[in-house]
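User: I'm writing a tutorial on reading structure tokens. Could you give me a worked example: one chain, its sequence, then its tokens, then a sentence or two explaining what the tokens reveal?
Assistant: Sure. Here is the example chain.
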Amino acid sequence: MAVATDKLMLDAAYEREKNDADRVYMTQPVGGGRTVDYTWAETMNQARRMAAHLRSLDLPPNSHIALISKNCAHFVMCDLAIWMAGHATVALYPTLNAETVAYILDHSDSRLVFIGKLDDWEEMREGIPDELPKINLPLAPETGFPTWDDIIASQEPIPDNPSPDPDQTALICYTSGSTGKPKGVMHSHRSAAIPAQNFGLELKITPEDRVLSYLPLAHVMERATVECASFYNGLHIYFADRLDTFLEDLRRARPTVFISVPRLWLKFQLGVFQKFPEQKLQRLMKIPIVRGIVRKKVLDGLGLGDVRIAGSGSAPMPADLIDWYDTLGLHIIEGYGMSEDFAYSHMSTPEKRKAGHVGVPWSNVDTRINATGEIEIKSPGNMVGYYKEPDMTAECYTEDGFFKTGDRGEYTPDGLLRITGRVKELFKTSKGKYVAPVPIENILNSDSHIELSCVSGSGRPACYAVVQLPDELRARIKDPAFREEVTPKLEALLDRVNSQVEGYEQLQFLAVVGDEWQTANNFLTPTLKIKRDVIESTYDPYLDEWYAAKKKVIWQD
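And here are its predicted structure tokens:
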């Protein structure tokens, strides 16, 4: 593998500006099927002009500047401008409620906020203090705040190429808050640089590659593997317009690199099955003369016909789902990383890849499993620390510098890592046995009838699972005929799960709920992970009734 250098992200961007000035770097949809292309020269020119404005504000060095936006070209320009001006970026998820927005802006000591492309501005605006200076990016909702375009029109671009101290803070990434208040993970220019370089070096990504950026850039996975990595590998970034134009956006980009999460990979599969019934597709794939034609038709229909690197992260991907994509010739590589290591610890390779496992450590990452089964990592991407939380930072590092991930795992003899759950998510039944819920949830979630699940049972004689059906099934949840049709299938799923786990881990029942778990109602984090405490407390009042029913499947409207 090529070896990453000490080149910082800004220095890499200056090289792109000089050597690839006229190459299109980003393509931004602006509505109505129209797009705007930004070359490296135009990107850097706008960033330099905004950096001049930020310098004129005479903020203290390394001030924190907030950015609230969906993915768009000006998100990247903001980062570049903030760094050129000597400051650090605090990116907020574009789906947060006003209370969380207010908390992060206050906790991070943000001195200015950029407002970008948003769907729920009215839900967020109450969380932004009136006295905090604000700047509207292009594509932002109408707010009356000063606009990016007006400001850069009045500024000359900075002429110099400022390069920050490698140990200066570049980013504060706030965690999604699945276990309480979001924590501010600080990354320096150094801790972002080597991971960002190596993503491209290991995968041999070049300026000829294309990617569609749609997973939130406020999350470290997309920030590291797409935006920050692009300064080094120079690939062409396309952005998605809206949820209902996603397929159109995908077909426009014709990505050669496509990164997703298990939940979306499953939705793609279900979409294929709506056009190609599963059994019919299986039959066609067994016929050598038509197999290649069918593969191409399916992948082209998804907009993934040109993909040479397909990746998945955020959660374990069901083994049978990976196997299904393998039959299409799309070999998905899984990775494992955290906000705290800049998404840089493990990745599958063509030689070392196995369904249910998240790959092997990067060559410059040291890992180990401690005596309690917890994964510990020493990565060049390890964070500087949690903002304003020195004690918490000290607690999560070992004396010899390994980060305690909070994840439990085990290695195969050839070095592949399998995640077996979260240390703090273990619960004890009334029989005194500890249960790890995540592996059981992974089995449930691999079934096409299940969208999301939450396994629990603390203090109870047996475990149970609350499950949410996919949208198209949940719409029929009150139909007695539908329930009669689906109940036997869910009972069979329960039996199948129980046949794969230890006796003390077996589920007494599945509770099918009609609620839609969303980020907006606080059931999910912005990265679409379940908030276990919220789900457990919501359905706790029903538990006595559910256990007493002694049914395998319980329907709860």
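What the tokens reveal: The chain has 19 helices and 26 strands. The first strand starts at residue 24 and ends at 31.
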